[in-house]
Write a structure and sequence with these properties.
Shape: elongated
Structural class: mainly alpha
Number of helices: 9
Largest sheet: none
Helix content: over 70%
Radius of gyration: 18 Å
Distance between the termini: 62 Å
Strand content: under 5%
Number of strands: 0
């Protein structure tokens, strides 16, 4: 019986690290393979193209974001406004961790990829749209719990998400995760306007 290879998993992990750090275009197949310790032929065995790897990377980022961030940030153990504040606070802490480890705020991997690739890769754009819409729906649920009617809750969720991604963009540009935490108080007022 042959041994089980973890090459696919190592390629996904390397893709996550390199794409998040430098973007899709900068992360070459050879560089991904070198970091993963996998031959280029094996890459193409698992992924017909770098775009296919990117789809797997987004799916893995989504799993991790849900487990490490979203489930904790939006857990129903606090009132809605405090959950929104925690959503921004935890995001700031995650970006602070990147800064301490690597010297810079890396930003949101989904937004980074969306900005870079949405006009160039339809499959990737559609997956990213689905992922981001899922977060907006979770925020909408929090707004409804705060007493907002459905149409207002949807607009509030979109506004909070836009504020969130904008704060992350500013934090990345300034290399200052505190920007994200400061915007949490603004987002909290949006949710409490029921």
């Amino acid at each position: 019986m042959g041994r089980t290879s973890d090459a696919r998993e190592r390629l996904i992990q390397s893709g996550m690290e390199l794409i998040h750090a430098g973007g899709y275009t900068q992360a070459g197949v050879q560089e991904i393979c070198d970091q993963a310790g996998v031959r280029k032929g094996s890459f193409y065995h698992f992924f017909p193209s770098k775009g296919d790897l990117a789809l797997a990377v987004v799916e893995r980022f989504q799993e991790q974001a849900r487990e490490i961030f979203l489930d904790r940030a939006l857990a129903s153990d606090l009132p809605p406004g405090e959950r929104i504040l925690r959503f921004f606070t935890l995001a700031g802490e995650i970006q602070q961790g990147f800064k301490e480890a690597d010297g810079w705020v890396k930003g949101c991997p989904f937004a980074n990829l969306a900005l870079e690739m949405s006009t160039r890769d339809q499959a990737l754009r559609l997956l990213l749209e689905q992922v981001l819409q899922g977060v907006i729906q979770q925020l909408e649920g929090v707004a409804r719990e705060a007493g907002q009617p459905p149409s207002a809750a949807q607009r509030t969720a979109e506004a909070i998400f836009s504020l969130f991604e904008g704060a992350i963009l500013l934090a990345k540009t300034r290399n200052d995760p505190e920007v994200i935490r400061r915007m949490g108080a603004v987002a909290q007022t949006l949710i409490e306007m029921a």
